[in-house]
Design brief:
alpha/beta, globular, TIM Barrel, 9 helices
């Protein structure tokens, strides 16, 4: 396994050149870029990013020998099951960017419209949307990973498996976030159920207040309650040997961003050894 970092972790005032340089120096093997709203950060892609823009970023990526390994986005926000026009626009831009960089996967977020609409209606709309995009997805040959986030859509790994299997596209699988289930479940159990459906991984850690469903706070890797000694072997057993992408945020105002990147890289490197 290799270690990468989502660009949301990086200081929003940092441009592409400085970001690639600093992440390479910190020891990362790859970076995940994000399609965001205009003005989100100095290193965000947007819905209006062009091939010319991507060429400049790719040149920087190659200069520092730090590949763009996947494309995430902050734009889904419950629209997949309710706004197919916007959803297709987001999906097309993610696939376009991923293809340009040679990245093998993108992250999409189903659900989130509940409770504004009934959960079954939201689920049905998301499945229908992803099915409708089969030709587009297959034309790129890029994995589309649905992520488990805190939007009350995937309450268990069985929910996630059922959703993926109903979409019925070998290129649509799980972009599994190891830390997003710790508040109420055990991450290794999700991995055992999802198995080979897992295409990409986000890593973070979470410290429970007491036990499950007792609240808690985000924690640095590996200082929370993720059982890394069980999670990493479970990923290996599932056949996963890709990037562990940190999606974390600096909270210590006295620590520089450069020191924080190195700290995160060291934490991921530590858990990979299990």
């Amino acid at each position: 396994m290799k270690k990468s970092l989502n660009a949301w972790t990086v200081d929003s005032k940092t441009g592409f050149e400085q970001m690639f340089k600093e992440l390479k120096a910190a020891g990362f093997d790859g970076v995940e870029l994000n399609v965001d709203k205009e003005g989100t950060s100095e290193h965000s892609l947007t819905l209006s990013t062009t091939a010319e823009d991507l060429a400049k970023i790719k040149a920087i990526s190659e200069k520092y020998d730090l590949p763009v390994i996947s494309i995430s986005t902050s734009l889904w926000g419950g629209c997949m099951g309710t706004d197919p026009i916007l959803s297709e626009k987001i999906l097309k831009q993610q696939l376009f960017c991923a293809d340009y960089f040679g990245a093998k996967g993108i992250l999409v977020v189903p659900g989130g419209a509940y409770p504004k609409i009934p959960l079954l209606e939201d689920r049905k709309g998301c499945i229908e949307f992803l099915r409708s995009q089969r030709a587009l997805i297959e034309s790129y040959g890029i994995y589309v990973g649905v992520e488990n986030v805190w939007n009350m859509f995937f309450g268990s790994p069985l929910d996630m498996v059922s959703f993926i299997d109903e979409v019925d596209n070998p290129l649509v699988g799980a972009y599994y976030d190891v830390g997003n289930v710790i508040a109420f479940s055990w991450s290794e159990r999700w991995i055992e159920v999802l198995g080979s459906r897992i295409h990409n991984i986000h890593v973070k850690d979470y410290k429970r207040a007491r036990g499950v469903n007792s609240g808690g706070v985000w924690a640095d890797i590996p200082l929370g309650d993720v059982n890394w000694k069980a999670v990493i072997p479970a990923l290996r057993a599932a056949g996963f040997d890709g990037y562990l992408t940190g999606e974390v945020f600096k909270e210590d105002p006295d620590m520089s961003y450069q020191d924080y990147y190195a700290f995160v890289a060291k934490g991921i490197e530590e858990v990979i050894k299990y």
